[in-house]
């Protein structure tokens, strides 16, 4: 179906509709869609629930939204709270609120200022986080830049350039990030250029590694250089 034959789906107030192919989908108030959605723009304000898959060029969530199938979009913007039950495929994922992903995430750019939970793996070219996150699988990105505002964790972290810094709570983030312990916890961290603060890990492996304040690392394996700050705890280190 080409774009000229697509109609808009608009739900205002309280209502429901079936899935299908649409030009734009706009939900204001409280709306439910039963089935899959294929559209150009998906915008929701208030409370929305989509029982199937969502495929759109642009997705914007204000308020609270639940999507129970996979999500595929070039541009996803979350300004409220979203729960995604399936896998998420994206080019640009921007979160200024809270996102819960029960599957895995795969795409180009993640820009997080808030709270992100991923039950599977999270893969991107760039991962910029100012907030807190929990990734139960692998966090893999070319450039990983993390500013810790709350307790964060990933099973494994892999990238070319990895930077982790602790930040304070002088921001609006404190309204939905109640965690006081701004630390990163991981089993393994592996990259070329690594700088860590307030990080607990069993293994850190890379070429040029700096272990900063607040770190507790069981084993560091480095190829070129290791720079430990005073007060950083490293049980064992070796050049490989």
TrEMBL record:
It comes from the Bacteria. Residues 12-21 have a biased composition (Low complexity). Residues 1-23 are annotated as: Disordered. Belongs to the bactofilin family. This is Bactofilin. Transmembrane segments: none annotated.
